[in-house]
Amino acid sequence: MSIGKLVSFDSSRGFGFIRPEDGGPDVFVHVNDIGLDEDELRQGRVFEFEVTEGDRGPKAVNLTAVGGQPAPAAPVRHRNRERNSGPLTAAEHRRLITELLLDASPALTAGEILTIRDRLTSFADQHGWLEN
Fold first, then answer.
1. Measured between alpha carbons, how far is 21 from 113 in angstroms, rounded to an integer?
2. What is the Cα–Cα distance from 72 to 110, expressed in whole angstroms?
């Protein structure tokens, strides 16, 4: 079993990513594999989970909330972005890049998506394109 924090979840598409506590790469999670009601999935919540090998790389299954903690009350903030509306946060950038990669190339594995996303986020940060 692994422990990690849900760092993103798109309820309209039914998937997200968990960042393992041990510092490994983020793990893909899909609503059909979790064993929980979707309304229990809140960004920042800590889960215990098993990791299996999916079609696109490692994925989390059999999630259990750690410590019976309540889900954060505040919804995940999504800004309505317009041209020149200012820099993105790193978390917003990662979420948007993940969605773009999944739309652009469904054949990418979770590991490939994470590698590309992390390199693009690092590049954007080095150029001052992200909020600090």
1. 20
2. 26
Residue numbers in the chain where pLDDT is lower than 70: 38, 67-86, 106
Q: For residue 3, which of 17, 19, 14 has the smallest C-alpha distance?
A: 19
On whether the pTM is more than 0.90, the answer is no
Provide the token pair at 84: 């020149």
43: left (phi over 0), alpha (psi -120 to 50) or beta: beta
Distance CA 130, CA 90 (A): 6
Q: Which helix (H) or strand (E) holds 91?
A: helix 90-104
Pick among 2.60.120.330, 2.40.480.10, 2.40.50.140, 2.30.29.170: CATH of 2-65:
2.40.50.140
